[in-house]
From TrEMBL:
GO terms for biological process: myo-inositol transport; polyol transmembrane transport. It is found in: Membrane. Keywords: Membrane, Transmembrane, Transmembrane helix, Transport. It comes from the Eukaryota. GO terms for cellular component: membrane. This is Major facilitator superfamily (MFS) profile domain-containing protein. Coiled coil: none annotated. Pfam families: Sugar_tr.
Length: 505
């Protein structure tokens, strides 16, 4: 399979930027598409966040769960197993059937899984429901960023894709709010888990009336439908430029047998470099601890000395609110400061805050420091110190390492491989997420909370080095310009003469 990327007039196309001055709120149609697709992100956030509070009450209802760390971790992480499978298959579904149908399928999984969990009579039926919800999460994690990116003007693409991350963090915040609101209601955890069926049904209905991604339509030779969608996004001058770029890119992809294969990602040097950067970002997003915090924040708060379920949920709600607020900052900065600089700055703060959090727990566990305070004053101060470290961590993580991996992965792959590579990268995210969720409590039990967070800080240092070395800046670039960037990284200044799937070193 050979896709020749040397196109007549390509340099002119890649250098022509036209009047790229569209603002974030200037096109309501684009915002409507982003908002509707972002409901998938909201469900993603809600279903991954709600379990942190529900788990406190599931332990109370099921004695088999109460004293079994492995079963607790399995209830949390089974959604991640489903997400891993959903992301792996979701990339192929996206490329074969489109972004719209993929979203509808995810909604069905969300609704069915939520209802199964709500009615669960034991921990194993609950685990089945978590698996179904996870399938929806995995498909949505691939589909929503790509759908938004392919409808977004390049100059605001990062902000719009980051809006999906805002919906994720907003879903997590809402899940904590629901957790707190249902603390005194009979059947507490069933309401917490079952309410997610409502937004899934809402998105399913909305998506029936929304169009398919214009780039996917054009790639599938549905040019008239694609242009009809693009006409609602761009004015006439900009429309002509975008269609010309799209036509040139599609023309050379059609020179192939028009079938992308997983093996191609590893045969092509450009795709290998892009996938390495994208998948690496996704892995480091998880191994620097974000979902450890989001899944287990009430448990971490209780480890810090706040034993009340209600107080633990309230403090965790504040952490989730900061996560959502930080994402709004990220939306503002990502198309101004750039993806790379934002990620590097974020990681610096993440490492510092994890060290603070680790030291709070290490000092708290030191009997020589705290036994002198019989009334628990020292423990209380260090407990609040740990909560402050947790809040500082979120303040640094959420604007940068929260949205940047998803934004980068939505824009660094060629059209023919965007769903496939996006799915592969998301699968790396979910595998990493699963490892963290399934092992966190066990590692804490083995080496202590302080040393666990100190280890995560060390991973943050490795993440900084990775971003500095392997992640390029894609701020404001068209998809075609991003492709050219990878060719130049792979082959030097003569990269446009190379075949996408040509010789590898």
């Amino acid at each position: 399979m050979t896709i020749d990327m040397s196109m007549p007039g390509s340099s002119g196309l890649l250098n022509a930027v036209g009047k790229r001055d569209m603002k974030f709120f200037s096109n309501r149609y684009v915002l409507a598409l982003t908002g509707a697709a972002g409901i998938g992100g909201f469900l993603f956030g809600y279903d991954t966040g709600v379990i942190s509070g529900a788990l406190l009450y599931i332990r109370d209802e099921f004695p088999a769960v109460r004293d079994n760390y492995f079963l607790q971790e399995t209830i949390v992480s089974m959604a991640l197993v489903g997400a891993m499978l959903g992301a792996a298959g979701g990339g192929w579904i996206n490329d074969a059937y489109g972004r719209k149908k993929s979203t509808l399928l995810a909604d069905l999984m969300f609704a069915l899984g939520s209802l199964v969990m709500c009615a669960a009579g034991g921990p194993y039926i609950l685990i089945l429901g978590r698996l179904l919800v996870g399938l929806g999460v995995g498909i949505a994690s691939v589909t929503a960023p790509v759908y938004i990116a392919e409808a977004a003007p390049s100059e605001i693409r990062g902000g719009l894709v980051s809006t999906n991350v805002l919906m994720i963090t907003g879903g997590q915040f809402f899940s904590y709010l629901i957790n707190l609101g249902f603390t005194e209601v009979p059947g507490t955890w069933r309401w917490m888990l079952g309410v997610a069926a409502v937004p899934a049904i809402v998105q399913f209905v909305l998506m029936l009336f929304l169009p398919e991604s214009p780039r996917w339509l054009y790639w599938k030779d549905e040019k008239a439908q694609a242009i009809a969608v693009l006409e609602k996004i761009y004015d006439s001058d900009r429309l002509e430029e975008e269609v010309e770029l799209l036509a040139s890119s599609s023309m050379h992809e059609f020179q192939s047998d028009n079938s992308a294969r997983y093996l191609d990602v590893f045969k092509s040097k450009e795709l290998r470099l892009a996938f390495f950067a994208g998948a690496g970002l996704q892995a480091f997003q998880q191994f620097t601890g974000i979902n450890t915090v989001m899944y287990y924040s009430p448990t971490i708060v209780q480890m810090a000395g706040f034993t009340s379920n209600k107080l633990a949920l309230l403090l965790s709600l504040i952490v989730a609110a900061m996560n959502a607020a930080g994402t709004i900052v990220g939306i503002y900065l990502i198309d101004r400061c750039g993806r790379r600089r934002l990620a590097l700055t974020s990681l610096c703060g993440v490492v510092i805050s994890l060290v603070i959090l680790a030291m709070a727990f290490i000092l708290q566990s030191s009997s020589s420091l705290c036994m002198a305070a019989a009334n628990g004053t020292c423990q209380g101060v260090l407990g609040w110190f740990a909560v402050a470290g947790l809040a500082l961590y979120i303040a640094f993580f959420s604007p940068g390492m929260g949205p940047v991996p998803w934004a980068v992965n939505s824009e660094i792959y060629p059209e023919a491989y965007r769903g496939m590579c996006g799915g592969m990268s998301a699968t790396v995210n979910w595998i990493s997420n699963l490892i963290v969720a399934q092992t966190f409590l066990s590692i804490v039990g083995l080496v202590g909370t302080g040393l666990t967070f100190l280890t995560i800080a060390g991973i943050g240092v490795l993440a900084f080095i990775f971003v500095a070395l392997y992640v390029p800046e894609t701020k404001g670039l068209s998809f075609e310009q991003v492709e050219q960037l990878w060719k130049e990284r792979a082959w030097g200044s003569h990269g446009n003469r190379q075949s996408l799937l040509g010789a590898t070193p």
